[in-house]
Amino acid sequence: MEHRKWFKTLSDLRGKERSLLHGEYHTLSYATSALAYVRLWDQSDRFVVVVNWGSVPATLSLKSTDEAKLPTEAKVKLSTDPELVVESMVGLETITLGPGTGALLQFPFAP
User: Which of these, 24, 39, 68, 78, could form a disulfide with 104 (CB 3.0-4.6 Å)?
Assistant: First the structure.
């Protein structure tokens, strides 16, 4: 996805999705050149953001926290990694990102 379109889509989502606009931030995994965190708000959809700013692929192990329980998979909402196809489902136990890529993953609130 072209970068301009990616940022425009992300900006539009941020204005519409409560978790992105008002949500709490909880780190799920981090490494020297990669990070994963979740944004959640009340009973709204949750979003996992994963980024790899390094020059080699990064594999992150995502772990639920007391505040943020993760399902086994989530839908790819946005991605700059060609391996993570938008609207596809990906497992959340571990995720691999190519160098210099990022993705926004979505999953529903579950009581």
Answer: 78
Residue identified by tokens 């981090």 is 30
- The whole-angstrom separation of Cα 56 and Cα 97 is 9
pTM for the full predicted model:
0.91
Find the helix or strand (DSSP H, E) in which 5 lies: helix 3-16
User: Whose CA is closest to 31, among 64, 56, 60, 55?
Assistant: 60
- List, in order of start, the domains of the chain with CATH numbers: 3-107 (2.60.40.1180)
pLDDT tier at 52, thresholds 50, 70, 90: very high
